[in-house]
C-alpha cells in the first residue's frame, strides 16, 4: 500500500470515530482522552472534585455560542474565579486540538436528572 492510500485510511478512520454519532462509543473515547490529558486528575463528569463537574459546566454555558472558544483558551492558559478560588493550572502540554475536542464534548453533556425529566415528559400518563 502506498503512502497516499495509507493516509487516506487514517483520515477515514479518525473521521468516522468522531462523526459516527454513536454516543456510547464517543463517551468512552472522550473519557479515555480526558484521562490521557490529565483532566480527570481534577474533574469528573458528574461530580465536583477540585474542578467543577463537567455536567455543571455544560449547564452554565448552554446556549452560549462563544463558550467553546473562550473555554479552549481558558483551559489552555489556566484560570480562576468562575467556580471558586481554586485555580485551574495551565494545560499547555495538551494539544489545542484535544482541548477543543474535549471542551466541545463536555459542553454537550446533560445531567442525568435532566434526562429523567425529559424522559418522564415523553412517557404517557397512566392515571
Ligand atoms: C489542576 C487541576 C485541573 C486540571 C488538570 C484541569 N482542570 Fe479544568 N478546572 C479546574 C478548576 C479548579 C476549575 C475552576 C476554575 C474557575 O473557578 O474559574 C476548572 C474549570 C474548567 C472549566 C470551566 C472553566 C470556566 O471558566 O467556566 C472547563 C471547561 C475545564 N476546566 C476543562 C478542563 C479540561 C478539558 C481539562 C484537561 C485538558 C482540565 N480542565 C484540566 C481544575 C483543573
Characterization of this structure:
The chain has 127 residues and is mainly α. It has one domain (23-122): Cytochrome c-like domain (Cytochrome Bc1 Complex, Chain D, domain 2, Orthogonal Bundle). The protein contains six helices and no strands. It has helices at residues 3-19, 23-36, 54-61, 67-77, 96-106, 112-122. The longest helix has 17 residues, at 3-19. Mean pLDDT is 86; it is low at 8-17. The structure holds heme C.
Give me the secondary-structure category.
Answer: mainly alpha
| Largest beta-sheet characterization | none
Relevant CATH superfamily: Cytochrome c-like domain
Instruction: Determine the strand fraction and express it as a percent band.
Output: under 5%
Shape, principal axes of CA atoms: globular
Identify the bound ligands.
heme C
Roughly how much helix do the residues carry, as a percent range?
55-70%
Taking all Cα atoms into account, the compactness measure Rg is 18 Å
CATH topology: Cytochrome Bc1 Complex, Chain D, domain 2
Unreliable stretches (pLDDT < 50, length at least 5) are: 8-17
Output the number of helix runs.
6
Using the 3D structure, state the CATH architecture.
Orthogonal Bundle
- Work out the count of structural domains: 1
In the CATH scheme, the class would be Mainly Alpha
The succession of helices and strands, N to C, reads HHHHHH
Distance between the termini: 65 Å
Mean pLDDT, nearest integer? Answer: 86
How many E strands?
0
What does this entry show, briefly?
It is built from 6 helices and no strands. The chain has helices at residues 3-19, 23-36, 54-61, 67-77, 96-106, 112-122. Heme C is lined by residues 37-39, 41-43, 50-52, 57, 71, 74-75, 79-84, 86-89, 91, 94, 99, 102-103.
Amino acid at each position: 500500500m502506498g503512502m497516499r492510500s495509507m493516509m487516506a485510511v487514517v483520515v477515514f478512520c479518525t473521521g468516522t470515530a468522531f462523526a459516527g454519532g454513536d454516543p456510547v462509543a464517543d463517551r468512552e473515547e472522550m473519557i479515555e482522552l480526558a484521562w490521557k490529558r490529565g483532566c480527570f486528575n481534577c474533574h469528573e463528569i458528574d461530580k465536583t472534585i477540585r474542578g467543577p463537574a463537567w455536567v455543571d459546566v455544560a449547564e452554565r454555558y448552554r446556549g452560549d455560542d462563544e463558550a467553546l472558544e473562550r473555554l479552549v483558551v481558558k483551559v489552555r492558559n489556566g484560570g480562576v474565579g468562575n467556580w471558586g478560588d481554586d485555580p485551574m493550572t495551565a494545560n499547555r502540554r495538551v494539544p489545542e486540538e484535544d482541548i477543543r475536542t474535549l471542551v466541545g464534548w463536555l459542553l454537550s453533556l446533560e445531567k442525568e436528572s435532566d434526562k429523567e425529566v425529559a424522559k418522564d415528559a415523553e412517557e404517557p400518563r397512566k392515571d
